[in-house]
From TrEMBL, chains A, B:
<keyword id="KW-0560">Oxidoreductase</keyword>
<dbReference type="InterPro" id="IPR016204">
    <property type="entry name" value="HDH"/>
</dbReference>
<keyword id="KW-0486">Methionine biosynthesis</keyword>
<dbReference type="InterPro" id="IPR036291">
    <property type="entry name" value="NAD(P)-bd_dom_sf"/>
</dbReference>
<comment type="pathway">
    <text>Amino-acid biosynthesis; L-methionine biosynthesis via de novo pathway; L-homoserine from L-aspartate: step 3/3.</text>
</comment>
<dbReference type="Pfam" id="PF03447">
    <property type="entry name" value="NAD_binding_3"/>
</dbReference>
<dbReference type="InterPro" id="IPR005106">
    <property type="entry name" value="Asp/hSer_DH_NAD-bd"/>
</dbReference>
<dbReference type="GO" id="GO:0004412">
    <property type="term" value="F:homoserine dehydrogenase activity"/>
</dbReference>
<dbReference type="GO" id="GO:0009088">
    <property type="term" value="P:threonine biosynthetic process"/>
</dbReference>
<feature type="active site" description="Proton donor">
    <location>
        <position position="207"/>
    </location>
</feature>
<feature type="binding site">
    <location>
        <position position="107"/>
    </location>
    <ligand>
        <name>NADPH</name>
    </ligand>
</feature>
<comment type="similarity">
    <text>Belongs to the homoserine dehydrogenase family.</text>
</comment>
<dbReference type="Pfam" id="PF00742">
    <property type="entry name" value="Homoserine_dh"/>
</dbReference>
<dbReference type="InterPro" id="IPR001342">
    <property type="entry name" value="HDH_cat"/>
</dbReference>
<protein>
    <recommendedName>
        <fullName>Homoserine dehydrogenase</fullName>
        <ecNumber>1.1.1.3</ecNumber>
    </recommendedName>
</protein>
<keyword id="KW-0028">Amino-acid biosynthesis</keyword>
<dbReference type="InterPro" id="IPR045865">
    <property type="entry name" value="ACT-like_dom_sf"/>
</dbReference>
Amino acid sequence: MSSPLRLGIAGLGTVGIGVVKIVQKHAGLLARRSGRPVEITAVSARDRMKNRDADLSAFRWETDPMALATAEDVDVFVELIGGDNGIAKDSIEAALRAGKDVVTANKALLAMHGQELAELAESLGRAIRFEAAVAGGIPVIKTMTESLAGNDITRVMGVMNGTCNYILTRMASAGLPYAAVFEEARQLGYLEADPTLDVGGIDAGHKLAILSSIAFGTRVNFDAVEIEGIERVSIDDINRVADMGYRIKLLGVAQMTPRGLEQRMSPCLVPADSPLGQLMGGTNMVVIEGDSVGQIVLRGAGAGEGPTASAVMSDIVEIARDIRLPVFGQPAAMLTDAVPARTAVPAAYYLRIELLDKPGALAKVATVLSDAGISIDRMRQYGHPDGASVPVLIVTDKTTPDAIDFAIEALPGTGVLIGDPVELRIEEV
Amino acid sequence: MSSPLRLGIAGLGTVGIGVVKIVQKHAGLLARRSGRPVEITAVSARDRMKNRDADLSAFRWETDPMALATAEDVDVFVELIGGDNGIAKDSIEAALRAGKDVVTANKALLAMHGQELAELAESLGRAIRFEAAVAGGIPVIKTMTESLAGNDITRVMGVMNGTCNYILTRMASAGLPYAAVFEEARQLGYLEADPTLDVGGIDAGHKLAILSSIAFGTRVNFDAVEIEGIERVSIDDINRVADMGYRIKLLGVAQMTPRGLEQRMSPCLVPADSPLGQLMGGTNMVVIEGDSVGQIVLRGAGAGEGPTASAVMSDIVEIARDIRLPVFGQPAAMLTDAVPARTAVPAAYYLRIELLDKPGALAKVATVLSDAGISIDRMRQYGHPDGASVPVLIVTDKTTPDAIDFAIEALPGTGVLIGDPVELRIEEV
């Protein structure tokens, strides 16, 4: 059996400790599967004194991640520090330059600097692997770069932020408004220090940008992702769409169109009985469509110590097996710059409006939709005991986002609406 | 860029032609992803004159698969002939001995001779890859051997025969009896020449035996799989279990227990709203549980030209990338001989009996169950206008297969049953 693969782990949060535990618990299994022992040489974290749920006594402690990244007795630098810049990026670059391979779970860094890092790694003949960066324990990076290598990928979709899915699921099951469930999630420790990373759709947007790059052979371009978070999703809409057989999910969709690469992360309606619609709580799902394979659905825990550490370990075992692939599945130098396209693929839309209870109100709305070229698939008007406001739900036939925007802008001019109209895209899944 | 990888494809059925089409259509993509061109040098099939949906004029025709397997200008022998012995096995062995790598979709061969072939390949430093052998386009082999390499796998389950799932789904949706749908499936060309391979659960059993080997690091042992096909599933049971929130699936389950390795492929009940329960038509699903990752669910097309060829291509790209792993994820010489264990893991069971309409009948049944140590979770007695026979459904609490067998054997002795009791395991998913 070959010489051991020696790991240096920077960052001892949930995931780092999870990796330590697997290496300690499964030494024999890892050696059989890797063809060589996998060992931890040294670790590093901000606070040495913090009480951690693992025995670290056998590992050298490095105060400076840069020293760990370049240590003589480290073969693989495992970056679990996080952050889209600063020490995470610096230490990865230092590790690559020192001839180390890199495993990271850092989606923000890859979404912002993936191209630059991939070029550096490939010029040095080193690997950067990041299975844990997208959808936790779900093997989506490997599936896209390897299992679907013979496919022209046509669309990638996913629910990739467990916190948002938890909030939306909990609102629906408990009938609670967004603010209350947000507060619950905060108290349960489900939210990032900056919660807009989660509920603002940014974390999920990072993940989508990475998947897009692999799927379409393009340079990762996070700035081109159209992002809308879940903050404006109301319990009213959650209840209303359920009446019509839908659920609301924070859904990422990337697809290449004749106008360019569409990437969006936004609250969408999906059929309640579809695999995405059935997804509850913190579970993640990625749906990949290829010209040969058809539709592949991958589902699993999107976060947490075990699942994320499992993904990190799969990358480590690859390197132990001496496998080094291009970072995004094709050489970074060959990745193209996609033209970013605003969403133009037609879809059905859900509209919710509150009408004044007076004759002709609905006719005025129908005229606006008709003027925008939108036809109505289903319409539902609810009772209005107070006599003041009439809730109306509309599911349109397939139409373009432009037509919807036109209608949304024109609707207030009718003078029959109370408040703003709500529109949500119904994604075909 | 390196020299081309040269393929010899033996067998030009649906899958072989699918592979030819992908190589022709995606030459550029495959080269970028593989780091080298992928080319077809020569092909072979039984009938040269058969009209095929692809242009084969650029490839040399070999009449003898053995000649193809050993041809000087072939790097990878792609075996798509099929059969658990004979020319498929002979040509793979010849290819390995001639220094070729092998890609195959042949589940029967691997289930019967996987250990022997893996030992041969590994002794020669060659690869045998077989992603297409299990669950078509779903990347289950790669996920288990690579993505979950850091996990102790605790259970593998799957619906892995699309024909059986089609038949069960169609029976439920159309309310048709087994025989009628079987005949439909035959006319649609969904069945193998020997249909017991499908409906008898043998094909799915082959796949389960392969997954077990990878999951538990054991020598593949198809003979130890407890197999029951779908022939005895009645439309009555399909309708009755639906009433109670279940669906019937031909489900494979493999798990390591203190008594040994349980492998079974049999009709089971799963909750209608679970991912497995939701699976319709020819779609396949594999559920893998690991100590770190938790539960991973993979879903996709289990058969057909595109999906299966996609899986074959992923194996070809791996070899083009110069990646050679142990055939079953760990060196064949290290795989252990598992003690086969009859299913002993407790589960709830569904029982359907027809009782004579006379006082005390149900009490006698309850006594038998109680004597077997089985308690009842739910019971449903249906109306019986004819006064002769009373259909009774029982869902038991968790109990052992032995207890159920004891009860099933004792029930006829009560003298109150019409016909035989039906029992189906309710798998926890």
